[in-house]
Amino acid sequence: MEHNSRRALRAPSIIIALFFIVAAALIPASFLCENAYAETDGESVYLGGMPIGIRMVSDGLIVVEYVGVITKDGAKTPALTAGIQKGDMLTELNGRTLKEVTDISEAIGDSLSPMPYKLVRGTETVEGSVTPVTDIVTNTPKIGLMVKNDVAGVGTVSFVKDDGRMCTLGHMISDGARDAAFFKKGSFYRCNILGVVKSAKNAPGALKGVFNRNGEAVGNIDSNSDYGVYGYLSDKSFVKDRPKVQIGNISDVKPGKASVYTTLEGNSPSEYEVEIVKYETQAKPEIKGLVLRVTDSVLLDKAAGIVQGMSGSPIVQNGKLVGAITHVFVNDPVYGYGIYAAWMSVQ
Questions:
Q1: pTM of the entire structure?
Q2: DSSP of 169-232, one letter per residue?
Q3: What is the pLDDT of residue 85?
Q4: Half-sphere exposure at residue 75, Cβ-oriented, CA atoms within 13 angstroms
Q5: Measured between alpha carbons, how far is 222 from 342 in angstroms, rounded to an integer?
Q6: Left, alpha or beta for 64 (phi > 0: left; psi -120 to 50: alpha)?
Q7: How are beta strands 21-23 and 320-329 bridged, if at all?
Q8: 240 contacts: CB under 8 Å, gap ≥ 6
Q9: Residue 18 pLDDT > 80, yes or no?
Q10: pLDDT of residue 91 exceeding 80
Q11: Terminal CA-to-CA distance of the chain, rounded, Å?
């Protein structure tokens, strides 16, 4: 079907780590080893490192691509002609509220008459009119759009608070440059890591993870922010075997040995040695606060450094949770960026 571009994603499927930003540079000269400003109250949290399946949903249908409709007069794209743009979120068509991808076909029905639409573009609401044309292959009216209403992938839990508040990833998720703001809610799912595709220079690897997006969720997502994806656990057994650790201040971070907790197989995290190479003085939250280098022989052997899907993996130094992985350096995956846990804990 023309509009049902994401139907295949609704079945349980293997998803290779969508939620990981990659960095192109090596170690920037602007990173300085100085004390930073943020301080925490030393809150103790459940240490993460577990893989997590994430599905985010939008309040409408996000335009992914135009699809040429084959008519007796050639290929036409009514949506493009009507001013609908890629990255827009359609909310209404022909008086019908749009939630599911099949809603467009149902809103059009058999009509070939001009029909009103409403959409969100950035922070603005836009209204217009689009006229369907007949697809001679299927003999049905279409407007020539490919749309989606969700995005899903695999990441890593950073920490969980006593009240069930869970933080993951250390950065925002989206499936395109313009649609990040449309994904504000969703669900967390138990996830199993099947294996690892090793990183190489200019080719970051990935965790191969599987979760059932139609299964029972372990929590609800209520925030997709620059500093992570947050929500509340509904299944507290998810963290029953995890140790507790104190969140460190940025001033606790020093160059030197540290540990990262992540999962390369199954669903139980392991500890791996890393070195904090540099860290940055920050007066406000940023997702790139420190630079780390993987030194653990096992992690280097299995993953060749940092891979996609490790996003959110907690970094512990001197017994305190000081940060989480957010980026891998494309030109040298042994290195990566991390965000300070102090920033994550106050979001």
A1: 0.83
A2: SSS---SSSS-GGG--EEEEEE-EEEEEEPPBTTB--EEEEEE-TTS--SEEEEEEETTEEEEE
A3: 95
A4: 6
A5: 20
A6: alpha
A7: parallel
A8: none
A9: no
A10: yes
A11: 41
Is-contact 23 202, C-beta < 8 A? no
CB atoms within 10 A of CB 36: 21
Say which amino acid occupies 305. G
Domains and their CATH numbers in the chain: 7-57+150-345 (2.40.10.120), 76-143 (2.30.42.10)
Q: Which residue has the tokens 């577990």?
A: 50
Q: Which helix (H) or strand (E) holds 78?
A: helix 78-81
CA-to-CA distance for 252 and 250, rounded, in angstroms? 5
Q: What confidence score (pLDDT) does residue 25 get?
A: 41
Q: CA torsion sign, 2 to 106 to 222 to 118?
A: positive
294: nearest Cα among 198, 182, 162: 198
Residues in the chain: 347
Q: Which of the two residues, 37 and 136, has the higher pLDDT score? A: 136
C-alpha 274/C-alpha 246 separation (Å) is: 19
Q: What is the pLDDT of residue 113?
A: 97
> How does pLDDT run across 280-308, given as a tens digit for each residue?
888 788 888 899 999 999 999 999 999 99
Burial annotation 295-312 (CB, 10 A radius, 16+ → b, else e): ebeebbebbbbbbbbbbb
The predicted-structure confidence for 153-196, as pLDDT tens digits, reads as follows 899 999 999 999 999 998 888 666 566 678 889 999 999 999 99
Element (H, E) at 190: strand 185-190
Q: Which residue has the higher pLDDT, 27 or 268?
A: 268
User: Is pLDDT above 90 for 215?
Assistant: no
Rounded to whole angstroms, how far apart are CA atoms 326 and 20?
Answer: 7
Paired tokens of 83: 């001013």
Tokens 């250390």, residue located: 170
Report yes or no: 209 and 17 within 8 Å, Cβ to Cβ.
yes
